[in-house]
């Protein structure tokens, strides 16, 4: 992570684990339904060669997020 500050989920390198701080705009209801909620711990498992989609693990489930969706998720 970049100095332990806040960043977007789309910026997190594969293999890193971060905590969701908030969701800013976008498909908020879809993300919340998938368990990507403030306080949730998210591990970035892998990223497709062109950066989309991003595979993450949250609450024991593996999910694929589009880079656009991950841009709305603020983490630290």
TrEMBL record:
Single Gene Ontology BP term? DNA damage response
Q: Name one GO molecular function term.
A: transition metal ion binding
Domain Ferrous iron transporter FeoA-like stretches: 7-76
Alphabetically sorted, this entry's keywords are: Iron
Entries under SMART domains matching the protein: FeoA
Which protein is depicted? Iron(II) transport protein A
């Amino acid at each position: 992570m970049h100095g332990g500050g806040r960043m977007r989920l789309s910026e997190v390198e594969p293999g890193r684990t971060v905590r969701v701080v908030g969701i800013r705009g976008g498909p908020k209801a879809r993300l919340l339904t998938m368990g990507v909620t403030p306080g949730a711990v998210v591990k970035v498992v892998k990223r497709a060669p062109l950066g989309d989609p991003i595979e993450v693990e949250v609450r024991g489930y593996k999910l694929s997020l589009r880079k656009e969706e991950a841009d709305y998720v603020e983490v630290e």
